[in-house]
Design a protein that fits this description.
GO terms for molecular function: ATP binding. This is Sn-glycerol-3-phosphate ABC transporter ATP-binding protein UgpC. It comes from Blautia parvula. Keywords: ATP-binding, Cell membrane, Membrane, Nucleotide-binding, Translocase, Transport. This protein has about 375 residues and is α+β, with helices and mostly antiparallel strands. It has eight helices and 22 strands. It has helices at about 50-55, 100-110, 115-125, 145-155, 175-190, 200-205, 225-230, 235-240, and strands spanning about 5-15, 20-35, 40, 65-70, 70-75, 85, 160-165, 195-200, 210-215, 220-225, 245-255, 260-265, 270, 285-290, 295-300, 305-310, 310-315, 320-325, 330-335, 345-350, 355-360, 365. The protein has a six-stranded mixed sheet, with helices on both faces. α2 (about 100-110) crosses α3 (about 115-125), α2 (about 100-110) packs parallel to α4 and α3 (about 115-125) packs across α4. The longest helix is centred in the middle third of the chain and has 18 residues, at about 175-190. It is elongated, with a radius of gyration of 25 Å.
Length: about 375
């Protein structure tokens, strides 16, 4: 086993006439993935995540840059010689064949000994909990069963790296949740470097040790799920991660009572955390970000802001409060057993360490003095 390294990786597609279109699907991507890591590559459609996966697998030609496993550059190594297992979102199974023969297909093609094939197929079938389906035809299987067979077929090759391309996207919500748990268990059991490509933040946050977030072919941030969630480097990452999404509101800095406050577009004032005082100046404009769960109900003796409730939703285990700020909304999620009506006046405190400022022009995170941007 060895680290996987992507160095200055670029991919530009042809227009169909042999000419490049001038737009990089993957643009100067640099990642070093330690052996045994579970990496989630996350981003919206068209961000370059599947293209990256296909270049690692050898199914896409690299425009520029290098991919290396350990000290070996694999750019020119044939896909089947890379010892990489790949499971696609659409299963790509062979309907006329049984589950057993689908899992064994690549081993038979490589003329592996029959006894070894049988041992490996039955072992991986047990791991993926499809051992009772080995004699069944795949066309009669459910979506979840097909995906288990698909992953088993990738694992039976004893890959150094397992690549999963949107493996749960065709499944319903309950089956997605079940298979998420199975994939997590599988990774801990086989200890194989695993790379999951997904547009679903819940998949990435729940499964991956580290997450790489991409936008338009460019890596935005790389870190643990906690780092990505609690320490976003820009507005894109802050907005992409979290459900409900982070509140992002334009504010103007105003001097107040020996400190500063943030003035919202409707005139509402929010007390500015002391951590920002050394960098704030009267009249500056920022985008303020705070997650709905980082706002708590307070009393009128000690609060950072006061609002009027526009919509209140009781969801049982949590309550969602929506505040209208002209054309925008501020969302608050609380677990307190409280009930509010439209028009109720509420007082809130902001969790200072989880309140962020972003540059209005670049979208980059504004760090309080002494901090540096991560990612």
């Amino acid at each position: 086993m060895a680290n996987l390294k992507l160095q200055n990786l670029y991919k530009m597609y042809d227009q169909g006439n042999g000419k490049k279109d001038g737009v990089y699907a993957v643009n100067n991507l640099n990642l070093e993935i330690e052996d045994g890591t579970f990496l989630g590559i996350l981003g919206p459609s068209g961000c370059g995540k599947s293209t990256t996966l296909r270049m690692i697998a050898g199914l896409e030609e690299i425009t520029k840059g290098e991919i290396a496993i350990g000290d070996m550059v694999i750019n020119d190594i044939h896909p089947k010689e890379r010892k990489i297992g790949l499971a696609f979102e659409d299963y790509a199974l062979y309907p006329p064949l049984s589950v057993y023969n689908n899992i064994a297909f690549c081993l038979k093609a490589n003329k592996v000994d029959k006894k070894e094939i049988d041992q490996r197929v039955r072992k991986i079938a047990k791991t993926m909990k499809v051992e009772e389906l080995l004699d069944a035809k795949v066309e009669g299987l459910s979506g979840g069963q097909k995906q288990r067979v698909n992953i088993a077929r990738a694992l039976v090759r004893n890959p150094r790296i397992l690549l999963l391309d949107e493996p749960l996207s065709h499944l319903d919500g309950k089956m997605r949740q079940i298979l998420r748990g199975e994939i997590k268990r599988l990774h801990k059991e086989i200890k194989c470097t695993t790379i999951l490509v997904t547009h679903d933040q819940m998949e990435a946050l729940s499964l991956a040790d580290h997450i790489a977030i991409m936008k338009l072919g460019v890596l935005q941030q790389y870190g643990t799920p906690d780092e990505i969630y609690n320490d976003p480097v820009n507005i894109f990452v802050a907005d992409f991660i979290g459900e409900p999404p982070m509140n992002l509101l334009p504010v103007t800095v105003q001097k107040a009572d020996g400190g500063f406050c943030f003035l919202l577009l409707d005139g509402t004032r929010i007390k500015a955390p002391a951590k920002f005082h050394s960098i704030l100046e009267d009249g500056q404009q920022y985008t303020m970000g705070i997650r709905p769960t980082s706002i708590v109900i307070a009393d009128e003796k000690d609060y950072d802001a006061q609002f009027t409730v526009d919509v209140f939703e009781n969801l049982g285990d949590e309550r969602i409060i929506s505040i209208r700020i002209l054309e925008d909304f501020l969302t608050i999620v609380i677990e307190d057993m409280l009930v509010f009506q439209k028009g109720s006046r509420i007082y809130v405190k902001m969790k200072e360490d989880l309140l962020y400022l972003f540059d209005r022009e670049t979208g980059e995170r504004v760090r309080e003095q002494g901090q540096r941007n991560g990612g």
